[in-house]
Specification:
By secondary structure, this protein is mainly alpha-helical. Helices cover 64% and strands 5% of the residues. It has a two-stranded antiparallel ribbon with strand order 1-2. A hairpin with a 3-residue loop joins strand 1 and strand 2. Helix 1 packs across helix 2 and helix 5 packs across helix 6. The radius of gyration is 15 Å and the shape is elongated.
Length: 111
């Protein structure tokens, strides 16, 4: 069990090293301080949800399968999801509305 825990932390640290903590926090939809605390081993809360989120977002070679946009990187997924939440059902464009509806039931962002 310890090996698996180390694996998701290693994935997180690799992503932070490559992209920086600010971008990783945006991709995960959490605060930068949460990412910093996790990487340093000082995160005081339960890490179960963070572990699941990291595995979901970075587990498949760092790509996410979006039903509308196809295979996209985590940052584009996070930005698109955030934009879809802001626009909501007010979307005038049919493609934007389709994206909003897909984002509402997204298994990656709605955990």
């Amino acid at each position: 069990m310890r090996k698996e825990k180390t694996m998701w932390i290693d994935i997180l640290r690799r992503e932070v090293t490559t992209k920086g903590p600010k971008q990783v926090a945006a991709e995960l939809g959490v605060s930068r301080s949460s990412v910093d605390l996790l990487c340093s081993g000082k995160y005081r809360g339960s890490t179960k949800k963070m572990e699941q989120r990291i595995k979901t977002i970075y587990g498949k070679e760092g790509k996410i399968a979006c039903p509308v946009l196809g295979t996209i990187d985590p940052l584009r997924c996070a930005e698109t999801w955030k934009r879809a939440q802001m626009i909501g059902m007010k979307a005038g464009n049919p493609d934007t509305l389709k994206l909003y509806k897909a984002c509402q039931s997204c298994a990656v962002r709605n955990r």
